[in-house]
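User: Sequence in, structure out. Go.
Assistant: Echoing your sequence, followed by the structure tokens.
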Amino acid sequence: MTSSTYEVLAIRYATRATTRSSLFLNHHVYGPDGPIDMDFFLWVARNEERTVVIDTGYGEAALGTTRLRRSELAEPIAALAGLGVHPESVSQVIATHAHYDHIGNLAAFPESEIVIARAEFDFWTGPYAGRQLFAHTTEPSDLAHLVKVRDEGRAGFVDAATTVAPGIEVIPVGGHTPGQLVVSVATATGRAVLTSDAAHFYEEIELDRPFAYLTDLVGVYRAYELLREMATEPGLVLVPGHDPDVMRRFPTLDGHDGLVARISPC
């Protein structure tokens, strides 16, 4: 492993049993309803020189809500600590987007640079963020913390595909949210592309089947097209943001109760 290649870990910290009609936009178009599980992840990219955390899971503000009837499997910051990842060792946190289950613990990283798309920040601190169909996927305290990060000079805003550390590129794709980021990380055997919620499930990419929550449907389809194009690159693997199949497609780490997978392109 070099300074520009990383070990990439997916940490599963919660799960939800639900129905397909609740997760996919206009699901009746595709066929009958049925059960589906949805997992919640955050990710780590690390080598001997740096540790980058991608998203931070949901925090205390969301724990008291019942909107998703989730089952918590691990507290995100504790799960990171169990991997030897502590806030003071994290140079950057990449916030792929501002939904509650992706930026809920940013306050635990008071010294880290927070990388976020400028379009994402502008939208969630702008006049439409409070509309109910947008607001129900966020926590006000999380959005207020983003403003604090900006005011402290720790926000690393990106407007286009940007290399934010050697071997790590963020790509704004929009669609799900105005500044949804995809994160491409170099490993010793290829590239791991963390789609976050640009594609929650593999079938979104494979079947062109948008998730229920979005800000731009055409943008979602464009993101799928980009991900499908990226997937043709030899040695590149796509890692959706909420698909339980991630834990079956990649090897799990011993000693972590099956909740941590090493993303290993081949």
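User: And one key feature?
Assistant: The longest strand covers residues 7-19.
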